[in-house]
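Hi there, hope your week has been kind to you so far. It would help a lot if you went through both lines with me. No rush at all, and the record is pasted right below:

***
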Amino acid sequence: MLNRLKNIGLMTLAVSALTIGGLTSANAAGASAYPLKEYDWPHAGPFGMFDKPSLQRGLQVYKEVCASCHSLDMVAFRELKALGYNVDEIKAFAAEYEFPNGFDDEGEEKYRKGFPQDYFPAPYGNEEDARDANNGAFPPDFSLLGKSREHLSLFTPWNSIYGEDYIVGILNTYHEDAPEGVELPEGMNYNEAFSGNLIAMAPPLFDDIVEYADGTPATTEQMAKDVATFMYWAAEPKMEVRKKMGLKVIIFMSILTIMLYFVNKRVWRKIKKGDDIA
């Protein structure tokens, strides 16, 4: 009976491993057939932390380039504190936006300046307006896009795709003309990293399209890396807190394990000698 249960357990484990490995590999392969360039992200790994200047530059790229089409519905202005901004800077940033605030006596809609507790406003009133302005395509919200494009494989890590690498790959692999034999429909663009290679979004980044406040050269690759970092932060703003808490838990559990080991050794030594545990 024990052998049968053992065999069933081993078979279940093997099938699970193959299934998970196969699915993650399939997801990774399906995300992009283009060999994405891999970057060393400061926030990757168990002890990685966000590069604050890069986050601030990424916010600038989003505000000046991406926000005209893409929403950021799940991020409040107050959360920009994690990027290194103080309260006054956040209040000033929020005040640059306007939000509906009821109607006046003549039935005209009124507006107010934004507050830190407000969320980034969407560029369009609804999906229909967004599609009308983008040749039928619906620009995705940026709140979770950095994580949704991430495909990590536990059993085949070499097939893993990080969301940031995918975003940078998309923004850096546009081509003016499609390869020979590929028909480019009207309103579509050819992109090597995008699945299917046909993308409705026109190339959004060009060298020096923004002027960084910190003086960093605004190359296309640099802007792509910065906005990818910002998008990953938007998808997981509590990452640094989670990692710090995880490190504390590991240290605590390590100390507790050592203490329990010596307690257990002391107790069983007394039992072997026939002494009272007390």
Confidence is low (pLDDT under 50) at residues 1-31. The two ends are 40 Å apart (CA to CA). The beta strands are 98-103, 109-113, 174-175, 189-191, 198-199. Residues 55 and 230 are 5 Å apart (CA to CA).
